[in-house]
Model the fold of this input.
Amino acid sequence: MKRCYQALVRLYPYDYQVSFTAEMVTVFEHSALECRAQGLLSYLRFCSGDLTGLVLAAPREWMAKWTTPRMIRGRALPDLRMMRPAGVSRETHFAGAGK
Done:
């Protein structure tokens, strides 16, 4: 079930995945173990509800990403292609980038 959950997390935007996947999977595993201890029916009910919720929430995250400015949303990762070492001017650093 963990693999299925991890596969469904890939439906979310990349920056969301990077920020939250590890925590989401850990919480899912612990909750699944607790429900499994309560019986098969409880476990199946939990898994179906959680996986359904994961699938239904992915489009909402994409809509939020597309409609909310990056500055407000705060989930955008830095663009590594645009980063440069401290103390090096932008012109100097990117002068050799095309080579």
Q: What stands out?
A: The chain has a mean pLDDT of 83.
